[in-house]
Amino acid sequence: MSRQLGDSHRRFLQTMMAIGITNEQEAKALYQHCCETHKTPCVTDKLDEFIEAINSRLQPMFMQIRKGMSEENGLQYYALVNMAETDITRMTSDYTENELELFRKTIDLIVSSENGKASSTDILNSTDTMTSKKMKKSETEHLLTRLVQDKWLCERRGEYTLSTRCIIEMEPYIRAMFQDQVKVCHICHNIAFQCQICENPSCGIKIHNPCVARYFKGRVEPRCPACEDFWPHEIPEVRRLHSQSKK
Amino acid sequence: MNTLLDVAIRCAAMTQRKRLSNTQSSSQSKRQSNSFMTQEEDEDATFTQPSTSQVQRGLEKLTPAQVDQKTAEVVQYILVKDQKKIPVRRADLVKHVVKDYRAIYPEIIKRATRIFEQVFGLKLVEIDPKNHMYILVNNLDTPVPRASPVECPSNPKMGLLFVILGVIFMKGGVVRENLIWNILKKLRVDPGQKHEEFGDVRKTVTDEFVRQRYLEYVRIPHTEPVEYEFRWGQRADMEVSKAQILVFMGQIHEQDPRSWSQQYREAHASSTPSSTPSSSQASSSNHR
Which of A80, A211, B35, B56 has its CA 20 to 30 A from that of B141? Predict the structure, then answer.
């Protein structure tokens, strides 16, 4: 159902277009700011409906403001994503063919990994098997820097993970391309990269690190929600709300 | 950061967005063609604007869904190009997106314009009626300047731009480049050196701002060594309020803006963007 929009919606959308992704707290503040600027009533807790109205008008352009969880801090984020293609061709205006091939290979490495990370060494090595124009080491490093800058990848200590924005936007592509391999969180049912796995060989369910923190919070003896075996991994702390990391 | 630039940046953040009160200001524009508009005319000559009856006939052959789909593609294309602040050439639009829907081109543009206004609060403007180039300009009103809780990435360079636009405006619309460089040097923004915030200042001013149509950088004939002059660019004309530039100048010189009577008159002339309420869609669409 297509809805009428006001200037507050438009300002919100313009800001989302400029920043790409924002966390829930900032999204709420932005919503309030947009309503106040254009003198429309702002109803707290109606942010999702506000966004829904915008989405109903964005849908014909295959654009959406979608919500997703950061695997780093467990916070909810809103990202403006392109739904037009299920492939990576959405990035074609910014990256060359061989750059995209390397990005695909990086995603492959991350999906196949246990910890949802790919080391820069592994990524560099994967250039050996490229079918399009091969990339030199310096080019690969430069590309990885750009991918981080453009908020597709995150880097820490030489290891690369998919950014929250990337996961939100690429989820359909990743699910389609890696049907059998891709991990799904048992708690929230979204795709999972940085997660813990049940050690029971006949169980093996996966749970996002932040979902683990929330699910097992306060439990003396953590047990797998599927097979009830003892959950042996370290239970992370639930991250505080004011964590402002942008992913 | 220098205090003057701080003021400029705050002022720029307030008035960066301006609303167009009329659609076809470009037809009054008597701009000289820029140095980078080259052979586009040749390609564009292959596309002639269809007549109303041609459009009607074209529409009859297509389903509403097909027309909507093509319109959506045009909107996406323009958004991507505009993100990089590159004007969209009609020839490219027809060649890469519209393609065999060219018979209904005016209808597609009309619908795309409506989508830009209703969904994005943007105005699709033809800045060059001769070479048929479009840009997107912000259509949203800013009745009361207030800081946004979310920091938009574009602001720092806007402050620099604002200072330059201010100088040009106060000097009657055109200044020799040396004046700009001297003023920037006084603000400790040296065009010869890499600036912490703006990087290569000379490149930002003479290349980036010019490509984005915020400034014009034109060679002064018969100068030896070669000298250039600066003017406001088409995008600046549409997005930046001269009235606010005057307010900003007033703050710097601690004068009432009205003391510059000529500029004040120019800034508040009817064709300049002013803070009138925005279009009907906004005020009547309060659907809560």
Answer: A80
